[in-house]
Structure formats: structure tokens, C-alpha cells
Amino acid sequence: MKRVPFGATSSPFLLSATIQYHLSKAPEEDKKTAVLKTSFYFDDFLGAAHSKDSVLRIYEQANRIMLKAGMTLKKCRQIPLLCKII
Description:
This protein is mainly alpha-helical and 86 residues long. The protein has one domain. It has helices spanning 11-25, 31-37, 52-68, 80-85; strands at 40-41, 44-45. It has a two-stranded antiparallel ribbon with strand order 1-2. The protein is globular and about 40 Å long.
């Protein structure tokens, strides 16, 4: 595992490139994976869904991909059910 000092000029680019790399390795069996590729701002996942079940599925898929990269999704806003799970 490589480390980059926090605050280095290249840190935001390297973080984004690392996340995009791991997302590109995820199977694209459905369109949700494609949505994930455009739903990250730095290490924050920004997404929406029509139902709580959809939110949970999207979260589980995004978190599974991030765990493979050695990262976890930790923050949650707006959905108390999901915030309790995280």
C-alpha cells in the first residue's frame, strides 16, 4: 500500500484516480455500477434512489467496491435508517 501526505498538491487527484480505478474494475452487470462512477466527489458518495431498499442496495454495492480498495463509506446524511447501519 502506498501513502500520500495529506495536503500534498496531488492528493485530490490521486484519491479520485484511485477510486475511479477501483470502480472501473467493478463488474458492470447493471446500470448501478455506471451510476457509481459519476457519483463520487473526492471520497464522498452522492446518490439518490426512489426507495429505502434501493438506497440500501446502492450503499452495499458502493461499500463493497470501496472495501476492495481498502476504504469504507462512513458518513451518512438524510436517511436515518442507513445512518444507523453505517
